UniProtKB/TrEMBL annotation:
Function: Part of the outer membrane protein assembly complex, which is involved in assembly and insertion of beta-barrel proteins into the outer membrane.
The name this protein goes by in its record: Outer membrane protein assembly factor BamD
Origin: domain of life: Bacteria
Record gene name: bamD
Membrane topology per record: Lipid-anchor
Signal peptide, first to last residue: 1-24
InterPro entries: BamD, BamD-like, TPR-like_helical_dom_sf
Cellular component annotations (GO), alphabetically ordered: Bam protein complex
Subcellular location: Cell outer membrane
Complexes and interactors: Part of the Bam complex.
Key words, A-Z: Cell outer membrane, Lipoprotein, Membrane, Palmitate, Signal
GO biological process annotation, one example: Gram-negative-bacterium-type cell outer membrane assembly
Residues of the Outer membrane lipoprotein BamD-like domain: 27-234
Family in the record: Belongs to the BamD family.
Length: 242
């Protein structure tokens, strides 16, 4: 009897799941569908906007609205935190439309999306230092903004890209510093020195580069390299920590 009751409950659950399937976008003219999607975008209803834009993208891939639909999808995916979808749409658009007049915006959005992937909500909420987390999205964002500034220096997004580039530089430098400190604490002296030298070469004008000299000094001292120790002490005097 219990088994029958359980089976009946399972059947009801499955039916409920089927009845709440994904909403089907009505087959209406593309101009009307796009107009509705724009209203959703403007009101911040990202889910509804994405639903309609995806329908347009699949139904009319070569239509009059196709490029603008993809641009709108990039933004809607980003705003709704669907970052992987945003990046995929960005890469597709850049591959198919390399000379589009909004390619600078697309590149800017790629940088923003990679930054969003690098952001840790709990870290921001509690101000927790996580310099040691995987920097790959930050590296991608750094490359995106650098490319934007090199290719489109007069873009309206160039100023903000420059500011974000500076922040990313510090983020990446702090990661190298955390890695060098990790090697030092593990008594991997040579690895610590190499990472410090790489940091100083790649990001010489950062606070992390100056701090790395202290790690480099300790590693040289452990190795008994007197000349290198004295040289590093001189560098520390010339580059005081602010």
């Amino acid at each position: 009897m219990k088994y029958q009751a359980l089976s009946g409950l399972l059947a009801l659950t499955l039916l409920a799941g089927c009845s709440s399937s994904e909403h089907v976008v009505p087959d209406i003219p593309p101009s009307q569908l796009y107009s509705e999607a724009k209203v959703s975008l403007q009101s911040g209803n990202w889910t509804n906007a994405i639903e309609k834009l995806e329908a347009m993208d699949s139904r009319y891939p070569f239509g009059a609205y196709s490029k603008q639909v993809q641009l709108d999808l990039i933004y809607a995916y980003y705003k709704s935190d669907q970052l992987a979808m945003s990046l995929a749409t960005i890469d597709r658009f850049m591959r198919l439309n390399p000379t589009h007049d909004k390619i600078d915006w697309v590149l800017y959005m790629r940088g923003l999306t990679n930054i969003a992937q690098d952001t840790n909500f709990m870290q921001d909420l509690f101000n927790i230092d996580r310099s040691d987390r995987d920097p790959e999205p930050a590296k991608e964002a750094f490359a995106d903004f650098k490319k934007l500034l090199e290719r489109y220096p007069n873009s309206p997004y160039a100023k903000d890209a420059h500011q974000r580039l500076l922040a990313l530089k510090n983020r990446l430098a702090n990661y190298d510093l955390a890695t060098a400190d990790f090697y030092l604490r593990r008594e991997a002296w040579i690895a610590a020195i190499k990472r410090c030298q790489e940091l100083q070469k790649t990001f010489p004008d950062t606070e992390a580069a100056r701090q790395s000299l202290q790690i480099q000094l300790k590693a040289y001292q452990q190795l008994g390299l007197t000349e290198a120790v004295n040289r590093t002490k001189t560098l520390i005097q010339l580059n005081p920590i602010e």
